[in-house]
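User: My instructor asked us to take a sequence, write out its structure as tokens, and then describe one feature of it. I'm not sure where to start. Here is the sequence I was given:
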Amino acid sequence: MRNDPASTAAAVLARAGGPGNVTSVAHCMTRLRLAVADPAAVDAEGLRALPGVLGVVTDGAGVQIVLGPGVVEEVTARTEALVREAAPALARPAGPDSGADETALRHAATPVKALLRRVANVFVPLIPALIGCGVLAGLNGLLLNAGLLPALTPALTAVASGFMALIAVFVGHNTAKEFGGTPVLGGAVAAVVVYPGVAKVTAFGVHLVPGQGGVLGALAAALLATRVEKWCRGRVPGALDVLLTPTVTVLVSGLVTLYGLMYAAGVVATAIGAAADWLLATTGPAAGLVLGGLFLPLVMLGLHQALIPIHTTLIAQQGYTVLLPLLAMAGAGQVGAALAVYVRLRHDVSLRTTIRSALPAGLLGVGEPLIYGVSLPLGRPFVTACAGGAAGGAFVGFFAMLGDKVGATAIGPSGWALFPLLAGNRGPMTAAAVYGGGLLTGYAVGFAATYLFGFTGRSRPAASA
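Assistant: Let's start with the prediction itself. The structure tokens for your sequence are:
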């Protein structure tokens, strides 16, 4: 029976030190994220014991409670409402990773994690639009290749491509919002990056190209706009602030974007695309093995957030990111490991029930229930799951080295849910075949490695890795 979201929210807050200890409420696809003023007041073990909680991750900035897709949105809304009722000044609107406030960031475990979290807060809210437009783009591609519904495909092209054409504006808006500036000014400066008229501007002896620098240029432009705006706020008289501050912000940041940031970001974006292509073309299996094998630990440390702008850059530049299918193999290894645990521990009714309930989500790419409910507590199965991910990544990387590139037109889903978003240089069918082969390899190796090496005895799981 499904747990009541209101009861879950109240229980979570009680064990997070109370509503007054919570400084921000946010969520991603599976996790409720609470930034807290006093991390020592959080009862992590109490949170783990709550019905419906699949796992708990703590760091210096607060606590992440794994609830799973669908449930997390309802619990987040209830939690945010309770925090607002108890302390209106501390509450912030709930939303996909809306971000930690300044208080939370001061408590961040490390400056690197704080920066990665803030960068993720810029890009994660864009994921629903990337998924929706990516699915439509894939459907439109199938219709075009099959010659079906020719009257509809131009409309689908417009609907699927409109967001990507203006993604720089959304990045600029979110960047200014996250770093303390006026969101619309960040969006206005970032809009310069995609304005068609920039083709008439010459920088470093060459004409600029609309969209040059992509999301990296937009991110840099909005960061600069935020700094300029804050500088102006402290120096412009109040009577003139409403006129001069936005004017100076847009003028200075816009000119620097045109005559410096767009060119520099374009060089970086091109280098990222070239590096990804070179990596797979020359070291495909090795690259896939490393990326697929290390992604689960990266998720545990929160370092996977650094890949979000790279994925977005590749999608904007090439139409898809070749890195996501490799990283998605980590989930396949996790599924294979969980199946092996299910087979070996026939008498552990509770654990087998957890696996049965979490396995469908794992097949669809939501790995937290299996990670925090099965493999990580057992120890060795987490390591053998990484081995399965490494094998699946090596499989996909091997075909990339042969010239069969597999990419994803959006970020977010993995597992079976990634199939509608697959693309590649040899067409969607070849991409789907290679990706499917990688999943099967990850399942098989994750299962075999866990079955053979994931236990200390015939039926006892290892206490630690």
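For the description part of your assignment, you could build on this observation: DSSP finds 17 helices and eight strands in the chain. Try explaining in your own words what that tells you about the chain.
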